[in-house]
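haha ok so turns out i had the wrong file open the whole time. this is the CORRECT one, sorry everyone. sequence first:
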Amino acid sequence: MLQSKAKIIPVFYGVQPSDLRFIERGKYAKAFAKYEKKKRYLEKLKEWKKALHVVSFITGYVVSKFKIGDCQDIISAVQKEVERTKSLHVAKYPVGLPKLVEDFQVHCLDELVHDIERQCEMDGGGERNSQIVGIYGMGGVGKTTLSKEMFNRKRSQYSRDCFLFDVRAAYANNNFPSLQMKLLKDLFQEDGLNFQCTEEGITHIKDCIGRSKQLSFLIVVDDIDEAQQLDALLIMDMLNKSVDSLVIVTTRDVGILINSGITATYHLKGMHRDDARKLFCCHAFGEPHAASGYEKLVDAFLNVCGDLPLSLQVIGRHLYGRDQSYWKLELNKVSKTLPRDIHRSLKISFDALDFEAKQIFMDIACFFINKSKTIAMRVWEGSGWNSQHAVETLKNKCLVEELEEGWTFKHGLKRLDCHNRPVLRMHDHLRDLGREMANEVGHPRRLWRRQDLEYLESLGFRDILAQTKDRCFHSFLDRSMDSKITYFLGESDVSAESSTSLLWLQLEYQGFQNQNQLKVDFNILQPFIPQWIPLKNLQCLKISNLLLETLWQSNVQVFCSPQKSHR
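then structure:
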């Protein structure tokens, strides 16, 4: 029965759960000792003991609590239990889900269970304590899918259960009382309640906790974005009153889990490449492998989707039943613009950021992916921002990752040129979102592409750009997304007359003669930097293909005028 993963509703007839939990001293002790003495079925005996031990922790029905000889009450109770435990729909194609559940069980739940059982034995067979665990990861990575699967597998082990979907949206839309009413109905059988105020819901839940007996329950609180949402559901109060219960919380922000005192956490990341391919093909072809002739196109779309399940599903479904010409058109399209469903999901996290965190998120997307964190922090501090706090916020919300030692995993192992210092990176879809947001009106102008230089031409820099083309920029004006000229402008717009604050300038020039030891004064570089680029607030000047020993004579960075060098 355990191996089949089927629902188990134990009926304890003439025994107590503790008799199964501690076989060596319970009613089964003599029977097991008899077989062990004969040394027969030893392996089977081990399996039986383990099975009985597991079943002893599953909430069931003890016959002694019913009238002797009256089985109808037991039958009715079991029927209600079966109706209550109808499974939630998890996924049309649960590719990789069994492995994910096993990993979550091993790395998050098993350690808790072992601690509980050890404590239980120390207490002489007392009831197990309740536990709360958190699952966090970026939007669309599969947190809700995993929690639904765990809910379906675990719910038969508890007397009551409740799954609260999309808590963040309910809270934002002033519909939180509906979640409180569902909680009251599912856990305390409080039906028919109708209130419109969150505070009134808190009062009802407190009252039910105060007058209820010790309960064993399973709760999933899905997609929270503020710690006070857990407080309004009185989750911690119920955990303190309950016995042998489990609460699973999902969020995009690990900081919320930490602030709520949830120490057992599981970081859900993207899918493995093989599973990603199978999931994409299931949605695009209805089977876990590519149709003949589509293999290269599938690989190209996998590069676009990355390892994000939401992208694999949305784009795969969109391509279902289409011919190769349509696939090629869509590949070009999605390489430039995120599909609406994916954009909407990811933008939720962006909208929750404060001003500085948004600006830094867009800066990383445009300039600092796989770049040194140290250099980026210097630029942001030059803007007067609390960059340390903002970067930690982005990391907590799974919008940015920080890699040590300059290694990254993307289509194989690749060494980054960061001199073993921490580097910043983000998912390709988050990068695209950040760059899209950076192009919207109202944000400081960021220039990093060829069309950005064309934009400068349109504002009156045509003659200046023509002059500089023949110097250091000529061979790079024709490059597209990976242009070696990067302008990071701090004000809201650029015009020929404006005194824009430049914070970041990256130049790669093949015209300098490489020398082993070259001492250079800033005036030497002046002819190679356009005169219209303002350097007063420059925080970072990055020059490639030039070996420099000394650039400034001191740590002073302010550039006074084109005629004076840095001293």
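Confidence is low (pLDDT under 50) at residues 405-419, 461-500, 508-525, 547-567.
again sry for the mixup
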